[in-house]
From TrEMBL:
SUPFAM superfamilies: alpha/beta-Hydrolases. Gene3D superfamilies: alpha/beta hydrolase (3.40.50.1820). The lineage of its organism: Bacteria, Bacillati, Actinomycetota, Actinomycetes, Kitasatosporales. Pfam families: DLH. One of its GO terms (molecular function) is hydrolase activity. The keyword Hydrolase applies. Coiled coil: none annotated. The keyword Hydrolase applies. This is Dienelactone hydrolase family protein.
Length: 236
């Protein structure tokens, strides 16, 4: 996989640090062309904060959002699946949620952010963390898991305030389709929210255009356009 994102030379794209749970966390921030906009958190795959995640962050900024990708691995990026699995297992869910809550604090305190809540978009491991974060953090009002892999038990959704738009591949062997029905039911029973979980004729990681063997352009385009519309509707 690619290394963590390097500075582009564009002052609208920058590496940042912020306090999180009595520690210093790092992330990648992208500002929209207008300089101001609603806030959105981008949560990495199990590979780490790669060039692909930085690109997604910039794409959200181009759509009008102040977008922040927190670095959950502290600068580490996996280069093969075994290393990715180790890094993911070394990150307890509770610690990941603490880091992400710190990112919510940081983003909402930035003068460029015009919203009083944020959206969260995540992929694979990060899609799972979208659900954990939204369940724990009422300042998340829009949650978008892309093929979210949940580590362990589903969270308690009784405190959920976010609407959920999920994107999943019908050929994703890591997330059986029947599990989506269980997820939808638990969210509804515990929060009263009807989660919009959509499926596409694609496999796992279909949005990752840095992996040609997994990327599905048609599914990606459909999922992206609905994500952008959903975030604008919930955050504007």
């Amino acid at each position: 996989m690619s290394e963590s994102p390097r500075p582009t030379g564009n002052p609208a794209h920058q590496n940042v640090t912020f306090p999180s749970s009595a520690a210093t966390a790092h992330g990648y921030l992208a500002l929209p062309p207008a300089g101001r906009g609603p806030g959105a958190i981008v949560i990495q795959e199990w590979w780490g904060l790669t060039d692909h995640i930085a690109d997604v962050t910039r794409r959200l900024a181009e759509e009008g959002f102040v977008a922040l990708a927190p670095d959950l691995y502290g600068g580490n990026v996996a280069h093969d699946s075994q290393e990715a699995l180790r890094l993911m297992r070394d990150l307890p869910v509770r610690r990941g949620v603490e880091l992400l809550s710190g990112a919510v604090d940081y983003l909402l305190n930035r003068p460029e952010v015009t919203s009083d809540s944020v959206g969260a978009v995540g992929f694979c491991m990060g899609g799972g963390f979208v659900l954990y974060l939204a369940a724990a953090e009422p300042r998340v009002s829009a949650a978008v898991p892309f093929y979210g892999v949940v580590q362990g038990d589903l969270p308690d959704f009784s405190g959920l305030r976010a609407e959920i738009l999920g994107h999943y591949g019908e050929r994703d062997e890591s997330i059986p389709l029947e599990s989506l029905g269980e997820l939808r039911q638990k969210i509804k029973e515990q929060s009263g929210i009807d989660a919009d979980l959509r499926t596409y004729p694609a496999g796992h990681a279909f949005f990752n255009d840095g992996r040609p063997e997994a990327h599905d352009p048609q599914a990606s385009a459909a999922a992206w356009s609905s994500t952008v519309e959903f975030l604008h509707r919930r955050l504007s």
